[in-house]
Automatic annotation (TrEMBL):
A GO biological process held by the record: epigenetic regulation of gene expression
Taxon lineage: Bacteria, Bacillati, Actinomycetota, Actinomycetes, Micromonosporales
Gene3D superfamilies: Histone deacetylase domain
Protein name per the record: Acetoin utilization protein AcuC
Organism: Micromonospora radicis
Family stated for the protein in its record: Belongs to the histone deacetylase family.
Keywords assigned by UniProt, alphabetized: Acetoin catabolism
GO molecular function, one term: histone deacetylase activity
Length: 393
């Protein structure tokens, strides 16, 4: 296996543009620009790969052919689209099929590079459209590129793929698509569905018949901050991954759990997000010989958060993590100010937060976060042969 890291990128990925909409492709443009200015994309062993669109054979591994037809037709006949298209969340736009298929193709390219041994890690920051359903657009997502890529890996012979979703919203599309498939473990940390779209991701969602224990959901209360997130992550994710023994780790790294994100109510910092990426890399190293595929996802603080979070992700995936106090380069600040005048442009790659945490223990007076942890462990740990009350599991 090569020790290289593949970064899948083409400016054509910016064509996934829903118009006047929270999911603005400028966040991806500024991420790549920041990574370039910081020298991340010029590191030894980093290979930039241009994607090709996923064809119908790939897309229909996950999506209904009638839905593909609707996505193609919708820009010409928006009033008759159906399938969740033409809503405020999922407006119709020119070239919708082509740009969505390119995002899916980019994530497939990343996954194939790692599975075939051409790279140890691979990243597509433009991907992570995890809400799309087999026959319906949802949550800003047209085609579910993580699910398409995982389905491709299964076709190539993968027997155990772990999908970990750290977006603030539940990874509902990926969970539903693989609900009955014991070869895919889906793990999602998110704000409670009682408070946030899509209204799913409760702890008792644990997988379908024959796949019990392969859906894991940690639903965190509004206001949960770095220490809470890290406590929950480390109380659940390493244990379920070790029990499942994945051959490859696939992660959706939405940046919208940040405290200033306008669409959610968790209180993470960029420093906490960086700590999560380091933990994911360590788990891939421990369990999968380093095989790690990462995508972007949500994130609506377009200048203040997303570029810094995903530049940290790219740094972690390509080698040494960036020091948190690293200044943002002046050329990038100028670009960010020009692209989105009036928004605060960060001067450093840190929020000056220590993301340390106290490990979970099943004793004492539980906090709301500890109750969320306990609910998940009680629901899913016995299905994986783990003790929900033993902190060593």
């Amino acid at each position: 296996m090569s020790d290289d890291t593949v970064v899948v990128w083409d400016e054509a990925l910016l064509a996934y543009d829903l118009g006047d909409h929270p999911l603005d492709p400028v966040r991806v443009e500024l991420t790549v620009a920041l990574a370039r200015e910081l020298g991340i994309l010029r590191r030894p062993g980093v290979r930039m790969v241009r994607p090709t669109p996923a064809d119908d054979a790939l897309l229909t591994r996950v999506h209904d052919p009638r839905y593909l037809d609707a996505v193609r037709i919708a820009p010409r006949e928006p009033l008759f689209a159906g399938f969740g298209l033409g809503t405020s969340d999922n407006p119709v736009f020119d070239g919708m099929h082509e740009s969505s298929a390119l995002v899916a193709g980019a994530t497939v390219a990343a996954a194939e590079a790692v599975w075939r041994g051409a790279a140890r890690r691979a990243v597509n920051v433009a991907g992570g459209l995890h809400h799309a359903m087999p026959a319906r657009a949802a949550g800003f997502c047209v085609y579910n590129d993580p699910a398409v890529a995982i389905a491709r890996l299964l076709d190539l012979g993968a027997e155990r793929i772990a999908y970990v979703d750290v977006d603030v919203h539940h990874g509902d599309g990926v969970q539903q698509i693989f609900w009955d498939d014991p070869r895919v473990l889906t793990v999602s940390l998110h704000e409670t569905p009682l408070a946030l779209f899509p209204g799913t991701g409760f702890p008792d969602e644990t997988g379908g018949p024959g796949a019990e224990g392969t859906a894991v959901n940690i639903a965190l209360p509004p206001g949960a901050a770095d220490a809470d997130w890290q406590r929950a992550f480390h109380a659940v994710v390493p244990s379920v991954l070790r029990a499942f023994r994945p051959q490859l780790l696939f992660t959706q790294c939405g940046a919208d759990a940040h405290r200033v994100d306008p669409l959610a109510d968790l209180h993470l910092s960029v420093d906490g997000q960086r700590a999560t990426y380091l933990a994911l890399r360590a788990l891939a190293d421990e369990l999968c010989d380093g095989r790690w595929v990462a995508t972007g996802g949500g994130g609506y603080a377009l200048v203040e958060v997303v570029p810094r979070a995903w530049a940290h992700l790219l740094a972690v995936a390509t080698g040494a993590p960036l020091e948190p106090a690293t200044p943002t380069p002046p050329a990038w600040r100028e670009l960010a100010a020009a692209r989105r005048p009036g928004l605060d442009v960060p001067l450093r790659m840190t929020d000056d937060v220590d993301p340390g945490y106290e490990p979970w223990q099943p004793t004492g007076e539980p906090s709301p976060v500890d109750r969320a942890i306990a609910a998940t462990r009680k629901a899913v740990f016995p299905l994986l042969g783990l003790d929900p009350y033993d902190p060593r599991d």
